[in-house]
Amino acid sequence: MRSVGIICEYNPFHNGHARQLRLAREAIGEDCALVCLMSGNYVQRGEPAIFPKALRAEAALRCGADLVLELPLTAALSSAEGFAAGGVSILTALGCDYLCYGSESDDNNLIMSTAKANLDPAFDALLRAELATGCSYPAARQKAIERLGAGAGLCSPNDILAVEYCKAILRQGSPLRPLPVRRPGDYHATELDRENPSATAIRAAIERDCRDEHCSSGIRNECDLSETNIGNGCTAADKQSLSLYAQTEAYHSEQSEESVLPPPWRAAVPACLRELYASAPIHTMGQGERAVLAILRTLPDAAFEALPFGAEGLWSKFMKNCRSCASVEEIIEATKSKRYTRTRIRRMLLCAFLGLTAADLERRPPCVRVLGFNDTGRAALREMKQRLEARDPAEPALALINAGQTPPDRGCYTLETRAADLYGLFSAEGPRPAGEEARQRVRYIPSAP
User: Fold this and answer.
1) H/E/C letters for each residue in 46-73?
2) Contact 194/15 with Cβ under 8 angstroms?
3) What pTM was estimated for this model as a whole?
4) Are 269 and 309 part of one and the same domain?
């Protein structure tokens, strides 16, 4: 069975993602398997995912994915280069045929030539020279590439990540064939675009809903709307049983359809997901800020020194700010510079909170979790397991394990469970109980007839 790998976050899944899955299947054929290697509860920009990984996996399966696997935490929180390299390595080991990714330019020849320029022996010297001028790493990299006669115009986020994917394919000698899909719209747009939305705009809209006066009265637990009186006679006890989104629905139910419209961001996600998202537990950095600050203020010097992304003394500056600043935003603002971006500092901060070191991020993941599949995905998974069992003993080991299953590598399991337990502290509905990683189960959605 031919398979198409997609390295993704789906934070959250929206109409643009559905379009990519549809175009990938059209390009390769209806009988292919779409394999999504998705970040878990934390994403590469250095934040908790807005919805839990199990729910995001289900959303992808409802909208065309066949198999959803979890990109290991250490790859998900790496730099763009590490994120791409980790994903390509896993999809290659699993035997995927294609790697599908979004691209603003839709010029695969330019992307591939730029990737080759990144691997040119002269690139490192040019990069160091540009960094010495004080510019940021992304700007220095772009200038170094252009001095090698490549990469002109490839400044958009998806193009930059596409270059990293192709660079990983070349460096690893992977047989993965690039399958670019043009990504319309603005990746960083703050205004909602129904057809070509940015996840940034959708997340911002969801968070605004949480802060709305109808969603912010300290109500944390969920209930079944069909069994709860949510009209004008709703009591305080009733309200204590409503989730943030349930409160919004309760408010809407009291108004006429003409006077109140559903949140505009719902038009930017597939219709089949709107009910799923409406009752989804929301997670934001702001909700877990006090927990984050508590950890950061009590970390020893050695823990800061061992952090990833802390080269050239950045860890020391970050440590001092963690011990003096009153908020996460203050820490980021006080630590970032022209050379060190906000995203880098956010990843560093999240790694400090989760207890991840530079050595952890450099380790090759020993296993990949299965989050969900349909019938086509189940067949693809069977072939992948057979391939791993028949691998050359000289190749690095990689195991496929189910959600909730204990991996053979205890160090890996310790990192996963700690990260999962801490994710519950970012919930807008109040702290979640620990131990949820062990209670996870694989999502199965039958294939459409």
Assistant:
1) CEECCCCHHHHHHHHHHCCCCEEEEECH
2) yes
3) 0.87
4) no
